[in-house]
Amino acid sequence: MAEPGATSRLRLSGLCFLLQTFTILLFAAFVRFSPESGPGLCSQPLNCSRRIQDWGSQPPRFRDAHIQTLLGFGFLVAFLSRYGPGSAAISILVVAFAIQWALLLQGFLHQFRNGKIHLGAQSMVRADFGAAAALISTGAVLGRVNPVQTLLLTLLGVTLFTLNEYTLLTLLGVSDSGGSVTVHAFGAYFGLLVSRLLRQPHGEQREEQQDTGHQPDVFVVVGTISLWIFWPGFTSATTAHGSAEPWAVLNTYLSMAASTMATFVLSPVLYEQSTLRMVQIQDAAVAAVAVMGMAGEMLVTPFGALIAGFLAGLIPPLGFRFLTPFLRSRLKIQDTCGVHNVHGLPGVLGALLGTLLAALATADAYGGRLEPVFPLLARGSRTRTGQALLQLSALLLSLLLAALGGCLTGELYLGGPGRGPRGCARCCR
Amino acid sequence: MAEPGATSRLRLSGLCFLLQTFTILLFAAFVRFSPESGPGLCSQPLNCSRRIQDWGSQPPRFRDAHIQTLLGFGFLVAFLSRYGPGSAAISILVVAFAIQWALLLQGFLHQFRNGKIHLGAQSMVRADFGAAAALISTGAVLGRVNPVQTLLLTLLGVTLFTLNEYTLLTLLGVSDSGGSVTVHAFGAYFGLLVSRLLRQPHGEQREEQQDTGHQPDVFVVVGTISLWIFWPGFTSATTAHGSAEPWAVLNTYLSMAASTMATFVLSPVLYEQSTLRMVQIQDAAVAAVAVMGMAGEMLVTPFGALIAGFLAGLIPPLGFRFLTPFLRSRLKIQDTCGVHNVHGLPGVLGALLGTLLAALATADAYGGRLEPVFPLLARGSRTRTGQALLQLSALLLSLLLAALGGCLTGELYLGGPGRGPRGCARCCR
Amino acid sequence: MAEPGATSRLRLSGLCFLLQTFTILLFAAFVRFSPESGPGLCSQPLNCSRRIQDWGSQPPRFRDAHIQTLLGFGFLVAFLSRYGPGSAAISILVVAFAIQWALLLQGFLHQFRNGKIHLGAQSMVRADFGAAAALISTGAVLGRVNPVQTLLLTLLGVTLFTLNEYTLLTLLGVSDSGGSVTVHAFGAYFGLLVSRLLRQPHGEQREEQQDTGHQPDVFVVVGTISLWIFWPGFTSATTAHGSAEPWAVLNTYLSMAASTMATFVLSPVLYEQSTLRMVQIQDAAVAAVAVMGMAGEMLVTPFGALIAGFLAGLIPPLGFRFLTPFLRSRLKIQDTCGVHNVHGLPGVLGALLGTLLAALATADAYGGRLEPVFPLLARGSRTRTGQALLQLSALLLSLLLAALGGCLTGELYLGGPGRGPRGCARCCR
What's C302's domain CATH number? Predict the structure, then answer.
């Protein structure tokens, strides 16, 4: 990132202090632990028969809190390994603030009762999702913004993410348990739009830096393994109770296996190098998870996951080869970490797959699992076509919000010190 | 590995495409999710009273799917760290394909009902075991075969592993929950026999490469810690329900502690260097787990695990010092990653220990735990001596199958392009 | 560490052999698996209604053994990453021996019935705590003692830790589930006192070595992530059953987020460098956990965790800037890994916070959670003031025992071969 002087360092220090103080005050005023529904209760059989209050239309899995956060943070490992140790400090700052901010905003929308937010274990999982979206956005502009700007980006990104997620999941009843649309696609396109507006004259210097961005193999290996270990659990962390849960895990697992094979199919054809670079395998794993975010709990047949994973695994090699240069030269969008190929397009593919599956969802195929996956469909208050259209409109709404929000955020950046006053007009050309 | 040209790259690409397409077709034709016995059900107390259908004679633990896969993949972490980042891409390819292939084959043998394979969470764990055996085999020939050959080795290795496992665990009722025989010994000797037949004139170049094979410490440290964290759970992943399970975990844990001490006892005597290399400690941990694979759930007394672990910890230092040079010079067997010292011999020791324990198993010593560990013994349909003989014959059968299979596979390799047509005769001399 | 010759290597080998043989004999004589209360039972709903026997006044969480050890070992990951790969071998040796030794000693104190120690899953967790305290102590003297001395330090440290823990938790009924006092403060001050007595003329050479002690970023990143993933579960591993457990997890999580922000507030002011070093963020995470060790299960309001974490996050930057040079120049205490700033002071702060919370604990604020957190208070056999005074006296007792024990241990060291016979007088000046 840009070398900040003494002023810049103090500005970062001050902003962190301000944000943390503000957050503490809000927590003091509003946030309390959920009084009766501790997650620990559910591991004691005698208490588990009383149903925990639903949270929006998606009853979150009420399991041990530390397992949840453990799984959730696998996300972070993957991102860090992609962005490299040099950016790790900033990534952790993003997570530390995004989690607190997401807890507050999501609490106001979801768990605000009697003037207090009632915090529980599932709040942490949702907050992890928010932090993940913020990290994806950061990935598009990494190395071109200073820490202060990154914090502001996180502030706005998490706010928009929470609004979008609340609209889609709670108000519209869209099924997107693993965040194909709300996390991957939203985070990627939000970051890309910000990146579009950040485009600076000294952008040419970026190209080498982007190449050195390929970390030492050790780090990428650790990241890839973490993905394989933790992410199947992450995509299923907020799926419906009971029977739909293992579907999401197994589907994600199969999807990762197939997408790895796809990378080995395509990369030798596209690239001259004799051996595959680990970072390509990591890209395949991330894409496989992004495509399974929405469809993971919907896929009834394992071979569907294999096919979807195989297709998702084709996207990153093709994208890095053909799309990223095109974006850079024509659309003037620099994508430092390639979030478009790894999160954006696979997320869109996942949403289309989810739409298709919702259109095909019949009680025959799902049996007792229709209720947890598509509750409104099961209760008869919505048709299959209606649900499918909603899943599709969720994608369009997210892209629209990401585009508008990205323009707005980029605008705020460009109005900052040391940058010319270029406007949203450029973004919307 | 050998530097592949354009032809070789395209051959890898084509083989991956072929295998993946074939797998998808088989999955489409045969594999469905298990309809009623989702693993998620078991975390809901009300549904848990109905017993899940046994799977062979070993009722697998029916727990959360993601915990299972999480633990299972700890295996992979350890292997990758041993083989080094340079081989990580190939290892992941092996895992990605081995899991799909093992799911299919094991499904046909274990879960084939009404023309369909019913996939569940426990299938993933068994598939992880298969992938682990394939990785161990790969470890013996790593750096001397190209990716295409590695894939074929995986294809054959997983097939033989599945046959062997089915014969031993299901047909013969052998207890080997952690895979001392089926995973460690079988994988190691299968790989060693293939390595024997691969012996090439340019084998001398290997010796330096083997030395550079000692990875940077960071990587080995991460691998060792992963072993300590994940493997105790892995060895107990398929143990019997209930009370026998913590035995396997605690025994493995104690075994690792004692074998680490053993390495600190022996290494200063054998080697001149002043400080221990981390890779030696990792070897000790792997050997400790291999020896506990079969006996882990059988050992009634903790000090037994300490003694077994201590003995297992003596094997790798002695083996690398005296046995590996002997194998290389006399038997012409190159063992790139030393799988013989780390997996092979400790696995054999574990099988002998298991035999001894089965011979000593009385209802007095085991109490209610006899039933889950030795079900046939508890039901009176088998004597202690019979069970012990079976445990021993399991070792011999596995070694025989590994030897024959290794010869067959090596033969197939040697008949490949660019290699002289040497035959099985050499193997069986 | 000092370059040991052949004699030194053989002495290490002999000591390891001696200790391991001694441990095996003790295990053979005394240790058996707990006959009826296997942890696996609790995952089977039907058996869970029978209450497991309490262990001291703190009923440990009786969950799956491998989850426990998995979480416990997250501790180790963090320490290793702090001390660097060069010291990893010694750290693993410390853990391997400390676990066995702690199992024996804690078994004699806690689980000794009918002449036998009954080992269960929770024993492993407590042993992990002991190993953690030993690792912290080792951190203060790392690089200045040879492996033999490290083993002896572990032997004495674990013995004193077990005595201290038994006195505080079982005899006095102090609540310290995450070990603010028993693990962090005790381990740090014990190590510091030993370090004081080790002060040698060639101590000047240490300063450079201390600087090279900053590991490559990759390693620190992995350690920090492991902390975030595993430690919230670790602090809650021995908390009371049920509802108090998620509090500890969530509080620790929030504390880590706030302390990371605090580091970003303070570091830019104190240091000239433009970007934060990852090791500073890791320090913040460790401090945040140390401060939550005692208070984690007591804090009713999330903002309390944020404030405590923020304060704890200020300690390491200030400590490394002002306190460590002062300790080194005035008190002649070298602190290789800065355990005073990262474990010692935050642990003391955590104990003070715990005292305050105990003084404020009312049945109104805690509701049904008073019983698991402060059992004696809930039963009316102790007043709030009494409990608060006990929590405070726990801190003082631990510091006293750490100081005396450190002097004793340092004395034993200094009397060793090759060192002048300086005495305890110097320690107590």
Answer: 1.10.3430.10
